[in-house]
Design brief:
alpha+beta, five-stranded mixed sheet, 17 helices, 9 strands, about 50% helix
């Protein structure tokens, strides 16, 4: 490979997350270095579909948290740490299985018309003030607000508290980011306390009997996990997991509509298909991490206890072995394989909810007359080590 090509690459897979176009670099990794040790980062890098699948499915060896630090040190002893410690997605071992079943059953209960109706209602209200030619920053605000409003409303939060609770959700999500500043961590800890207080007050309330929170409580009881603190923590987990990933799905879908010729015409009214292909083609979640619980072999490479794997799911999505012609944006792609929401025991059960919210949001923005070309001209990416979230008309949100 010539020097000019190498110079167009980001320096490493973490820098690639917010690089203007990381995908040629990812293609290089998949072809030339599907699983390698990056000594500068101190990480193993898995990029091919085979290596990523091995890392995500070997839960006996590849854990979601290091054994010595199940809760990030910066969050310990705080409401944010209290939530994190009880999240099913951050828990290893067999004890998590009943809770994972409860969470999956809860999200499945609203994945259809309920989610679509609430998404439409909230998207219409949030987009009411976005007019043709509006500041592109308003679109970024919409992309973050919509998933928070939808999930909060589904959890049973009253309408007059949605705006404030959405701000808490954003602050809480921000404090969990690997690159969070001390100020963001402190703000997120305080916001987590507010969310816990709010959700605890709703748990068991008669007016919230049909809410997502009430369903989760009943499902947890059915699967033998009756602890209300666990229920409330995982309800809060719905918020932070939906908040950033769905915002990225909305933003990246808008960029695709702006830059990929003919997508809107080919999609017709089926914007869900656009979002489904975006989660493969330009996903909000670019990488995740796994921590070796002991010595072992992953995809033919010997690793040691304590080693850390950076699992580049965005690269695996474009592995031609599982998705032929991976650089083609194909709305009718057959047997699409995506790793964006994980694989194996820790796969995220919220994919259907996130894609429904995102598709509804994109549809509403288009109906509001958002200037797609202007969005593409003003795009930057939110600072992150693992999330690719476009920001329009502003540098930070």
């Amino acid at each position: 490979m010539d020097n000019d090509t190498l110079a167009a690459f980001p320096p490493d897979p973490i820098a690639a997350v917010t690089f203007p176009n990381p995908y040629p670099f990812y293609a290089h990794l998949v072809a030339e270095a599907p699983l390698y040790r990056d000594e500068a980062l101190g990480l193993w890098i898995a990029s091919s579909a085979a290596a990523v699948t091995a890392a995500l499915t070997r839960d006996d060896l590849c854990r979601v948290r290091p054994a010595a630090e199940p809760v990030p040190r910066a969050l310990q002893g705080s409401p944010a740490g209290e939530i994190f410690a009880r999240l099913v997605r951050q828990t290893d071992g067999q004890d998590r299985c009943p809770l994972k079943q409860a969470v999956s059953a809860t999200l499945a209960s609203v994945a259809g018309s309920t989610a679509a109706q609430e998404s439409h209602r909230q998207a219409k209200a949030l987009a009411a003030d976005i007019e043709p030619g509006a500041n592109p920053g308003a679109v970024s605000s919409f992309a973050f607000d919509l998933p928070a409003y939808v999930v909060l409303s589904l959890l049973g939060v009253p309408a007059d508290l949605l705006a404030e609770a959405a701000r808490w959700a954003g602050a809480f999500a921000g404090c969990l980011a690997p690159a969070a500043s001390p100020g963001q961590i402190d703000e997120g800890k305080a916001a987590a306390g507010q969310l816990l207080f709010l959700l605890r007050s709703l748990l068991g309330a008669p007016e919230a009997d049909h809410s997502l929170l009430a369903i989760l409580s009943r499902e947890a009881r059915r699967f033998g996990r009756e602890d209300p603190d666990v229920v409330v923590a995982n309800a809060a987990g719905f918020l932070f997991q939906a908040y950033e990933a769905t915002a990225g799905l909305i933003g990246n879908s808008l960029l695709a509509l702006a830059t990929q010729p003919g997508i809107r015409e080919r999609a017709g009214g089926g914007l869900l298909r656009v979002v489904q292909e975006i989660q493969r083609f330009d996903p909000p979640i670019q990488n995740t991490r796994r921590f070796l619980a002991g010595p072992g072999t992953i995809a033919g490479r010997e690793m040691q206890e304590g080693d850390v794997l950076l699992v580049v799911v965005a690269a695996a999505n474009r592995d031609p072995v599982v998705n032929p012609h991976p650089d083609r944006f194909d709305l009718t792609r057959k047997n699409r394989r995506t790793f964006t929401f994980g694989a194996g025991p820790h796969a995220c059960p919220g994919e259907a909810l996130a894609t429904t919210i995102a598709a509804t949001g994109v549809e509403q923005l288009l109906r509001s007359g958002v200037d797609l070309e202007r969005l593409a001209e003003t795009v930057t990416y939110r600072r992150s080590a693992n999330l690719r979230i476009p920001l329009f008309g502003k540098e930070e949100l």
